[in-house]
Design brief:
Length: 433
Amino acid sequence: MGGHPRTFQFHACFVGIFFFIHLLHFSTVVEASNNGGFSVKLIRKKLARTTTPYCRRLMDSSKVVQSTSNAYLGHYLMELSIGTPPKTIYGIADTGSDLIWTQCVPCHNCYKQLNPMFDPQQSSTYTNISCESEACHILDTTTLCSSSSSFSAHNDQCNYTYAYASASITQGVLAHEKFTFTSTMGQPISLEGVVFGCGHSNSGDFNDHEMGIIGLGKGPASLISQMGSSFGSKRFSQCLVPFNTDIDVYSKLSFGNGSEVLGEGVVSTPLVTKADDTTPYFVTLLGITVGNTYLPFSNTSSGTVAKGNMFIDSGTPPTILPQDLYDRVVSQMRNQIALRPIEDDHDLGSQLCYRTETIVGGPMIIAHFEGADVQLTQTQIFVPPKDGVQCLGFTNTSSDGGIYGNFAQSNYLIGFDLDRQIVSFKPTDCTKQ
Ligand SMILES: *[C@@H]1O[C@H](CO)[C@@H](O)[C@H](O)[C@H]1NC(C)=O
Ligand SMILES: *[C@@H]1O[C@H](CO)[C@@H](O)[C@H](O)[C@H]1NC(C)=O
Ligand SMILES: *[C@@H]1O[C@H](CO)[C@@H](O)[C@H](O)[C@H]1NC(C)=O
Ligand SMILES: *[C@@H]1O[C@H](CO)[C@@H](O)[C@H](O)[C@H]1NC(C)=O
Ligand SMILES: *[C@@H]1O[C@H](CO)[C@@H](O)[C@H](O)[C@H]1NC(C)=O
């Protein structure tokens, strides 16, 4: 994957590391709204348990923050139903990976989830994908469909393994199923024959509301790729509420017609295609302005940056920058903020954090994407990992590429247009939609 996800040293994102599917049948739309497009709500849920160590956000890899009050609020969950009769699942909306999967009965090695797991036996629309079928055949068949005849009972199913940079992993079988979404207008939208992973062995750092992951990446297995242009042009947009928003306020994800990002203040940047990694939405970050100081992405005298040096990931909370750029950003922030950084709280690791009941009052940040300057204010820059503490929502990596995380994406309507190959940003109060 472009080299970087494998080397990332953080417990954050849902970046697919490897994947075996290349060819899929496009699913068919059963019902849709008038103009084709529709929107769904993205919700957030707190962990039901109260004492689990939490290590997904903000911290460097060696630290595990014990604070749970805000745990998992950095994930946006999509509600959808699968099967006939339909069963509700909640999956993490993730633009950094492709596979759509949920925990399935029988679950040999699964993490705890509160709602019942999906049981393929109970659904009349579930169909296994066989090794011989095109959807599986294009895969690495030696991996997926062993020729060992002693396992003939299992040999015909299309086994998959899909892993993430966070060390989460799902294993199971690929299947076709009917998916139903509830649009914000109230009507059901159905898609038949969606290829998804019925995960019979899943592990990772999930909370008990999270029943799987909805891959929204650019690769062929993702939800947006399987939808194709069924709902209008091949595009979607998201408007994520800031981390600190009341949990009952929802975010929005829109598909197809009606998901265009239009009007005053819209800026756009080209998507960068990489042959060896078709999943992420790669864009080019030229530099970052902190207050009045411009920091080029690359500190070399030539000033050239590699195209596609960042990708936009709704499944990763912090923005992750290469060490050198991160150090320069942090140093500018420290210089320009009047408060004293917290030095004595081991939970916080090496993050830049301040003790304040209100806002840090630091400088504005501008992310200079190629052709698109995106301004970040306090709510997108600082997040409270615990009461009375605000930390910079950025972290570092030893890789030379980075990730534009969902803290920074909040309060922007962000459009991913796969036909026009651009990502657009429009400042928007996502709590009022
Ligand atoms: C999407 O909108 C365009 C233009 O308004 C229209 O021509 C097209 O039929 C719509 N697509 C669908 C799937 O309804
Ligand atoms: C497929 O996975 C099942 C468990 O889900 C396993 O029993 C079987 O051996 C696997 N088949 C192959 C060919 O790897
Ligand atoms: C799917 O494949 C598994 C393993 O071969 C089998 O147990 C199950 O009955 C199949 N399900 C359907 C609906 O065909
Ligand atoms: C430029 O960045 C590299 C690492 O990317 C670092 O080793 C070097 O010290 C930096 N140079 C300056 C002048 O900051
Ligand atoms: C991130 O930076 C801190 C110091 O600011 C350093 O201790 C840590 O090793 C870095 N992590 C990575 C993954 O480079």
